[in-house]
TrEMBL record:
Keyword Transport found: no
Domain (Beta-Casp): residue spans on this chain: 249-368
Origin superkingdom: Bacteria
GO molecular function: hydrolase activity; RNA endonuclease activity
UniProt-listed Pfam families: Beta-Casp, Lactamase_B_2, RMMBL
Organism: Thalassobaculum fulvum
The protein's name: MBL fold metallo-hydrolase
Protein's UniProt keywords contain Hydrolase: yes
Keywords: Hydrolase
SUPFAM superfamilies per UniProt: Metallo-hydrolase/oxidoreductase
Sequence ranges assigned to domain Metallo-beta-lactamase in this UniProt record: 15-244
Length: 454
C-alpha cells in the first residue's frame, strides 16, 4: 500500500508543525501546530487546510507546545472528530495550554474591537474556549514505550525526547514501513530534563533543525544568569524574563533557587506572573518521574518564586519600584502579561529584558534581541532603552552538534531524512552537514510538498 507524507507546516519555518500521513484511505496527522511569527505565516492559520478535517482519522502529538498542538481547536471547530494520541504529561499540559491559547485569541479580538486597530470589522478569534474544550475531550493517552494502534495500518510508539514534560520521539509504523518523527529534541545533560532517547532504526526520518546552524554557548548557565541579574540589580533595575510557560519557566526557577541558595545573586523577590506557568510548574512538581529532579528538588525550585494569579496583583508589580525578577509568559513576547511588563520596564535603561531561548522571525523577541529601538505593543510603539539579552544556553532544543549526536545513534542510514522545523538557513545547513558527515540522503521539504514513501 502506497504511503505518502504531506508537509502542511513546520517546513521552511519553526512553527505550525503538521505532517499528514496517508496510506490508502487512512489519514493521520502528526502534530497540529499553530503558525507564529511573521504575519504571512500567521495568516496560514486562517487559510483552509488542503485536507478536509473530518476526513482525518487521528492526530498524534509529539508534545504540547503551541507550535505543535495549538491548531487542534481550529481542526475540531472545522470538523475533526477522531482521537488525539499523546503521552499523559502532554495531555495534562494541553489541558493548560489550549484553553489559554483560546482565551488569548478571544481577548486579542476583544481588545482589537474595543480599540479599533484591527482591519476586520468585527475582529474574530481563530477559535474559542469551547473549541479548546472539545479538542481536549478527544485525547487518548499513551505510555512511553508502549505500542499504540492509531488508525488503519498505522501504529505508534512514543519514546522520551527530553525537551519538555511528556515530549516524545514518535515512531509510526505502517506494515513494514517505519517513519520516525523527532519532534523537538531536548538537550543532553540538561539540569532538569531527560536526554533524548536513542532510536536505532528508521526507514524515513523527520528531524527538527531549530538550531541546525548553531551551537549553544557552552558557558555555565548559572554563571551567565547570575551576571545578568547582578548587572541589573547594581543599577537598581528590574529583570523581566519573557519565558515559555512550559519547561523554561521551571528550569529558570531551578537555577534561580541554586543561585539564591549559594548567595551568588542578591535576595531579590522573584515573581512568576503567568497562571499558565504556575499550572505547568505544579504539574512539573507532580511528574518527577519524567524529568531529572526529585519531587523535593522540584518543589524547592518552584518555591523560589511568588505565584501571581490575580490580574490586579500583576499590575501592582509595575507600580512597585522595588528591584525584582519577573518571569512571565510568553517566551517570544507574542502575547500575555509579559507585554504589559515590557511596556512599563523597557523604556528605562536601569532595567533588563532577559530572553531565554529561540526567538522566531517576526516576533517581538526576535526584533528586541536584534537591537530594535522600539516594538509595537497593543497598537503603540514602545521605546526599548532597557538592556536586552538572550540566554540561549537555556534553550530546550538540541543544537546542531547534539542533533548530530542523536543521529549517530541510528544503526543504519534511513532511506531518506526530511529536515523540518527550522528556518531555511538552519534547515539547509543541517542538511548539508548530515550529507557531508554521515553520507545520508537528506531533503528539506517545502510547505505543502507531498513525498511518497516507497
Amino acid at each position: 500500500m502506497q504511503t505518502t507524507i504531506q508537509f502542511l507546516g513546520g517546513a521552511g519555518t519553526v512553527t505550525g508543525s503538521k505532517y499528514l500521513l496517508q496510506a490508502g484511505d487512512t489519514r493521520v496527522l502528526v502534530d497540529c501546530g499553530l503558525f507564529q511569527g511573521f504575519k504571512q505565516l500567521r495568516l496560514r492559520n486562517w487559510a483552509r487546510l488542503p485536507v478536509t478535517p473530518s476526513t482525518i482519522d487521528a492526530v498524534v502529538l509529539t508534545h504540547a507546545h503551541i507550535d505543535h498542538s495549538g491548531y487542534l481547536p481550529k481542526l475540531v471547530h472545522d470538523g475533526f472528530r477522531g482521537p488525539i494520541f499523546a503521552t499523559d504529561a502532554t495531555r495534562d499540559l494541553c489541558d493548560i495550554l489550549l484553553p489559554d491559547a483560546a482565551h488569548l485569541q478571544e481577548k486579542d479580538a476583544e481588545f482589537a474591537n474595543r480599540h479599533g486597530f484591527s482591519k476586520h470589522r468585527p475582529a474574530l478569534p481563530l477559535y474559542t474556549r469551547a473549541d479548546a474544550d472539545a479538542a481536549l475531550e478527544l485525547f487518548e493517552t499513551v505510555h512511553f514505550g508502549d505500542r499504540q494502534e492509531i488508525a488503519g495500518p498505522f501504529a505508534a510508539r512514543f519514546d522520551p525526547a527530553g525537551h519538555i514534560l511528556g515530549a516524545a520521539i514518535v515512531t509510526m509504523t505502517a506494515g513494514n514501513r517505519r517513519i520516525v518523527f523527532s519532534g523537538d529534541l531536548g538537550r543532553y545533560d540538561s539540569a532538569t530534563m531527560l536526554d533524548p532517547t536513542p532510536i536505532r532504526r528508521a526507514d524515513w526520518l523527520l528531524v527538527e533543525s531549530t538550531y541546525g546552524d548553531r551551537r549553544h554557548d557552552t558557558a555555565d548557565p548559572e554563571d551567565v544568569l547570575a551576571s545578568a541579574i547582578n548587572r541589573a540589580a547594581a543599577r537598581g533595575g528590574t529583570v523581566v524574563i519573557p519565558s515559555f510557560a512550559v519547561g523554561r519557566a521551571q528550569t529558570l526557577m531551578y537555577h534561580l533557587r541554586q543561585l539564591k541558595d549559594s548567595r551568588r545573586i542578591p535576595d531579590l523577590p522573584v515573581f512568576l506572573d503567568s497562571p499558565m506557568s504556575i499550572d505547568a510548574s505544579e504539574l512539573f512538581c507532580h511528574n518527577h518521574r519524567v524529568h531529572k529532579l526529585t519531587a523535593a528538588q522540584a518543589r524547592a525550585a518552584c518555591s523560589v518564586a511568588r505565584y501571581v494569579q490575580d490580574p490586579e496583583e500583576s499590575k501592582a508589580l509595575d507600580a512597585n519600584p522595588m528591584p525584582k525578577v519577573i518571569i512571565s509568559a510568553s517566551g517570544m513576547a507574542t502575547g500575555g502579561r509579559v507585554l504589559h511588563h515590557i511596556k512599563h520596564y523597557a523604556p528605562d535603561p536601569r532595567n533588563m529584558i532577559l530572553f531565554a531561548g529561540f526567538q522566531a522571525g517576526g516576533t517581538r523577541g526576535a526584533a528586541m534581541t536584534a537591537g530594535a529601538d522600539s516594538v509595537k505593543i497593543h497598537g503603540q510603539y514602545i521605546p526599548i532603552r532597557a538592556e536586552v539579552d538572550n540566554l540561549q544556553m537555556f534553550s530546550a532544543h538540541a543544537d546542531a552538534d547534539e542533533i548530530m549526536t542523536w543521529l549517530r545513534g541510528f544503526e543504519q542510514p534511513p532511506q531518506e531524512i526530511f529536515v523540518v522545523h527550522g528556518e531555511p538557513a538552519a534547515a539547509d545547513t543541517l542538511r548539508h552537514r548530515i550529507a557531508e558527515e554521515l553520507g545520508w540522503n537528506c531533503h528539506v521539504p517545502e510547505h505543502g510538498e507531498t513525498a511518497t514513501l516507497s
